[in-house]
């Protein structure tokens, strides 16, 4: 199962036609394309239409999570509808499955959120705003865990925008780690299992890392992979 992935393409109205040429050979190289959020620059519906045109009708299934930029205009539901109209499945605490040559793939996704990493993280305590901030991460991590747990496929991928681990943030200033991801996402992935975890958001981070439970994590933010997409080849665990 060959998984193509990219995040943080940050498309604006001037991006129309810019990506399509680089995607021409994708159907020969991969079985699915996963988009790891921050698909738009400012979260407008018009930008989402550009994303839909560039990534729609590619010849392989496309699934996405949204990123913080895609929420900037409070139009995330309309953006998901525009993408959905072009057969781009937007995951948020949900999953999708696909069969390729007798092997099944399940992808569970959420935008995720921040909060930081074990020992240096926000907690659901104090002011209402702080409880809401930390509580949102608790909720989306639980939803990711439930979506993973519900998958009964040969291969499972966790797709988020925010990072589940700190390894793939190396290169970013430490001061902003709490705004780049949360260990709760990593705990959910370890608790319910996956063959690969993909995220974006950390433009200055590193591509490769591992959860505490040993699951491969890849930061596919476009400025990190420096390509139109990266491809990861996954094989079902030997029975
Ligand atoms: Fe981004
Ligand atoms: Fe982001």
From TrEMBL:
<dbReference type="Pfam" id="PF00149">
    <property type="entry name" value="Metallophos"/>
</dbReference>
<protein>
    <submittedName>
        <fullName>Metallophosphoesterase</fullName>
    </submittedName>
</protein>
<keyword id="KW-0479">Metal-binding</keyword>
<dbReference type="InterPro" id="IPR051158">
    <property type="entry name" value="Metallophosphoesterase_sf"/>
</dbReference>
<dbReference type="InterPro" id="IPR029052">
    <property type="entry name" value="Metallo-depent_PP-like"/>
</dbReference>
<dbReference type="InterPro" id="IPR016538">
    <property type="entry name" value="UCP008292"/>
</dbReference>
<feature type="domain" description="Calcineurin-like phosphoesterase">
    <location>
        <begin position="1"/>
        <end position="204"/>
    </location>
</feature>
<keyword id="KW-0378">Hydrolase</keyword>
<dbReference type="InterPro" id="IPR004843">
    <property type="entry name" value="Calcineurin-like_PHP"/>
</dbReference>
């Amino acid at each position: 199962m060959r998984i193509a992935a990219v995040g943080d393409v940050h498309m604006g109205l001037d991006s129309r036609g810019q990506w399509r040429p680089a995607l021409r050979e994708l159907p020969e190289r991969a079985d699915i394309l996963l988009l790891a959020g921050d698909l738009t620059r400012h979260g407008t519906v018009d930008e989402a239409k550009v994303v839909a045109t560039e990534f729609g009708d590619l010849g392989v299934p496309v699934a996405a999570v949204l990123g913080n930029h895609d929420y900037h205009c409070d139009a995330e539901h309309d953006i998901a509808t525009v993408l959905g109209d072009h057969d781009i499945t937007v995951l948020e605490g949900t999953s999708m499955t696909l069969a390729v040559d007798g092997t099944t793939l399940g992808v569970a996704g959420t935008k995720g959120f921040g909060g930081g990493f074990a020992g240096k993280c926000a907690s659901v305590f104090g002011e209402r705003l702080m409880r809401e901030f930390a509580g949102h991460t608790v909720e989306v991590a639980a939803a990711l865990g439930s979506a993973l747990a519900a998958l009964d496929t040969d291969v499972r991928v966790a797709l988020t925008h925010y990072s589940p681990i700190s390894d793939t943030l190396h290169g970013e200033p430490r001061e902003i780690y709490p705004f780049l991801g949360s260990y709760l996402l990593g705990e959910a992935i370890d608790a319910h299992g996956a063959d690969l975890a993909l995220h974006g958001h950390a433009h200055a981070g590193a591509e490769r890392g591992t959860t505490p439970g040993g699951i491969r994590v890849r930061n596919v933010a476009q400025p990190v992979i420096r390509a139109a997409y990266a491809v990861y080849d996954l094989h079902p665990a030997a029975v």
